[in-house]
Amino acid sequence: MQPHRFKRFLFVVLFMVAPLGAAQEDSASLAALRSAAEQGQADAQYELGILYEFGYNFPDHLASAYGWYSRAADQGNAAAVQRRDILKAQLSPSDLEKAQAQSRATAPSTSR
């Protein structure tokens, strides 16, 4: 199993079997992941894309996943390039345009 797939598998398994009392810890972990992604860390952007893609209770999950994958792909994350291209084929033209606009709007000002 490839390292990034194992990491994703492990995250999903651990998240699914976590005790209910761990919800607060999960929330803090998600906040830390989002913060790292917003600060431009490609691995965090990729991981957040995975959460959005697989519907971690986020609205517009595929468009948001595409946006996070795009930001990670722009930094050279090969796995993000693959996931972004797969989603690109699944999104309607209007959803793709929305995802691209969202990705540009949320990109850090240092990368513009």
Largest sheet at a glance? none
Mean pLDDT: 78
Instruction: Quote the distance from N terminus to C terminus.
Output: 36 Å
As a percent range, the share of strand residues is: under 5%
- Report the helical percentage: over 70%
Low-confidence stretches: 16-21
Query: What class, by secondary structure content?
Result: mainly alpha
Q: How are helices and strands ordered from N to C?
A: HHHHHH
Give the total of beta strands. 0
Task: Provide structural commentary.
- There is one protein chain.
- With 112 residues, the chain is mainly alpha-helical.
- The chain has a domain at 29-106.
- It has six helices and no strands.
- Helix 2 packs across helix 3 (42-53) and helix 4 runs antiparallel to helix 5.
- The longest helix is centred in the N-terminal third of the chain and has 16 residues, at 23-38.
- 27% of the residues are buried.
- Residues 16-21 have low confidence and may be disordered.
Q: Which helices and strands, and how do they pair?
A:
Blueprint: H1 3-17, H2 23-38, H3 42-53, H4 61-74, H5 78-90, H6 93-106
From the structure above, extract its key features.
globular, 112 residues, 6 helices, 75% helix, mainly alpha
Summarize the structure in short.
By secondary structure, the chain is mainly α.
